[in-house]
Amino acid sequence: VQLQASGGGLVQAGGSLRLSCVTSGRTSPYAMGWFRQPPGKERESVATISWSGAGTFYADSVKGRFTISRDDAKNSVYLDMNNLKPEDTAVYYCATRTVFSGNYYSPADFSIWGQGTQVTVSS
Predict the structure, then answer these.
(1) For residue 105, what is the DSSP state?
(2) pLDDT digits 0-9 by tens, 101-119
(3) 104 contacts 110 by C-beta, under 8 angstroms
């Protein structure tokens, strides 16, 4: 399985972007997620979604601004980002689990990763 992330770019503070991640294999029935790595920092969770889509997790820093969703018919997961802030600047990665059960909150819970897409928010 390979993941291809897209949709990053340069945006002004307060703007919006939509990240997309398409997999070469099935997204169902696995949890998927978006993560980011700011310059000089460790990779961190942004938002994750359960295999059914009924469960979602958001980092406190993005709650109310970001929304994760999935479309298994298109083997895709999305991240809608609104009211972007300079501190959201990072390389964003999508990832998928390859087992059905278990936690899906932290980067360590995910085993297959996309190549990343750069998001830069200017002040």
Answers:
(1) S
(2) 888 999 999 999 999 999 9
(3) yes
